[in-house]
Amino acid sequence: xxxxxxxxxxSRLLEAFKKAIRDGNVVTxxxxxxxxxxxxxxxWTRRGWLRPTAYTGRLTLNFIPSTAFKTRWADLGVIQGRFxxxxxxxxxxLFDTASATARPTNSDQINTTATx
Length: 116
What we know:
Layout: E1 3-6, H1 10-22, E2 29-31, E3 37-39, E4 48-55, E5 58-65, H2 73-91, E6 97-100
Antiparallel strand pairs: 1-5, 1-6, 2-3, 4-5
């Protein structure tokens, strides 16, 4: 469940979104000490994280699961969809295309063993 943003400057896009969070313009996303994003509403806050990686011409975010919960399709879909929505609302001048994979990629992690 990767998200890809096609951009000429992936590092600038990443920093702009982090700044929007720090400045209080994005209130439903936060960044942890590892630089991973998480959705802050109570329903989603510990369901998973998005880990950014900058490549030439692309910013990719891969899903990192909670160790406390099994990963649900709802977790993946909501986290991806709402992250793309926030990027469009706050950083649309810094990327041309956003896309999401429908299934996990080799770089995504999914927790199928937790009991919750």
